[in-house]
Specification:
Elements: H1 12-21, H2 28-37, H3 57-73, E1 78-83, E2 87-88, E3 118-126, E4 131-137, H4 143-161, E5 167-172, H5 183-196, E6 199-204, H6 214-218, H7 220-227, H8 235-243, E7 252-258, H9 272-275, E8 278-280, E9 288-291
Parallel strand pairs: 1-5, 4-7, 5-6
Antiparallel strand pairs: 1-3, 2-3, 3-4, 6-9, 8-9
Helix pairs in contact: 4-5
Length: 297
């Protein structure tokens, strides 16, 4: 084996054939331990290389850790939130294997125009309780949708789990439906704070750091495993599959379906910036701020 060779995608059968043609026959049985001795083992690509670095990264991570610990120590909810990959409904191919009596047959092309709809799983992970709730939307992933999912979590789980809470902490990415630079997200947060009557503190992960958001590695991989190989034929099926997610460390997942249309391209109210009660932190204000509920008269 030449020293400059770092990898090969040849099968053992193909290697054996080529070696025989070169006058050095070797069976697959011989090649397997030989490759291992030389350090060649089957590997797959891992998404570990950051696509960039942000100047606020080193300062924001300790800040998030500090906020998280403060809220957990006080018995207040700390929620890691994000939207999982959107999926089309229909007889489309999906990765994974499963036991089946019959051949699993799907369309030979995945054209979105043939979809019977789509599912948008929005996840909310309660760090202290080690429980997640996934709301399955069928419309668009908007800021209004994100805040409606948070409302549903509070009504179905949060209020009972944290009856004396006066505030909660949201940990989220800097983009998407909960983008740090979108006024429409902050307006929806203000409405959410008014609706729940509690302060909502937000801490965003800077760009290129979303994989550190807890829900990304504590919940979503297990949800993916619970759904692997199954053809998504209906929203109810997706909901049932996700609700079966559990781990040996005690993670459980509940689900709900939000079959409501959310409008794209919404603009903030004309007087939002004058009337909102969004207070930015002194430390990294771009990533950290609070939405205060409007006082009742």
């Amino acid at each position: 084996m030449r020293r400059e060779v770092r990898w090969t995608n040849l099968s053992l059968k193909e290697m054996s054939r080529r070696l025989a043609e070169m006058g050095t026959p070797a069976s697959k049985r011989v090649l397997r331990p030989l490759l291992k001795t030389l350090g060649f083992v089957k590997r797959k690509a891992h998404k570990t290389l950051a696509m960039g670095d942000h100047p606020d990264r080193d300062a924001q991570f300790p800040n998030i850790a500090k906020l998280k610990q403060e809220f957990l120590d006080a018995g207040l909810p700390v929620l890691s939130i994000d939207t999982k990959k959107k999926e089309f409904l229909g007889t489309f191919y999906r990765d994974g294997q499963l036991y089946s009596r019959d051949e699993v047959r799907v369309d030979d092309h995945d054209f979105p125009s043939f979809a019977e709809g789509k599912v948008i799983p929005y996840g909310i992970y309660d760090l202290a309780a080690n429980k997640a709730h996934v709301t399955i939307g069928t419309s668009h992933d908007t800021s209004e949708f994100a805040c409606e999912c948070l409302t549903l979590w509070w009504e179905q789980h949060g209020r009972e789990r944290y009856p004396t809470a006066t505030k909660l902490l949201l940990l989220c990415d800097g983009g998407g439906s909960n983008a740090s630079n979108r006024h429409v997200f902050k307006e929806e947060l203000q409405r959410l704070a008014d609706r729940l009557g509690i302060e909502i503190r937000v801490a965003h992960y800077p760009p290129y750091c979303s994989k550190y958001n807890s829900i990304e590695h504590r919940v979503f991989p297990h949800v993916t495993r619970a759904c692997q190989g199954v053809v998504f034929e209906s929203v109810d099926l997706v909901s049932d599959l996700i609700s079966r997610t559990q781990t040996q460390t005690g993670l459980t997942v509940t689900t709900s379906i939000l079959d409501r249309v959310f409008e794209l391209g919404r603009k903030v109210s004309d007087n939002f910036l004058e009337t909102c009660r969004i207070l930015r932190d002194n430390v990294l204000p771009k990533w950290n701020y609070r939405a205060l509920p409007t006082p009742t008269s």
